[in-house]
Amino acid sequence: MTVYNFAAGPATLPDQVITQIQSELPSLRGTGMSIMEISHRSALFDDIINTAQQDLRDLMSIPDDYEVLFFQGGGTGQFAAVPMNLATKHHRIALLDSGHWAAKAGAEAENLGYQVDTLASTKATHYDRLPARTSTLPTDTYDYLHICTNNTIEGTAYHDLPQTNGTPLIGDMSSNIMAQHYNVSDFDLIFAGVQKNLGPAGVTLVIVKKSLIKKVDHIPSVFNYQLFAKKNSMPNTPPVFNIYATGLTLKWLKKIGGIEAMEALNKKKSSLLYDFLDQSKLFNNPVKHADRSLTNVPFMTGDPKTDQAAIDDLTAHGLLNLKGHRSVGGLRASLYNAMPFEGVQALVNELYHFEKNL
Ligand code: PMP
Question: Are 282 and 301 in contact (CB under 8 A)?
Answer without folding.
Answer: yes
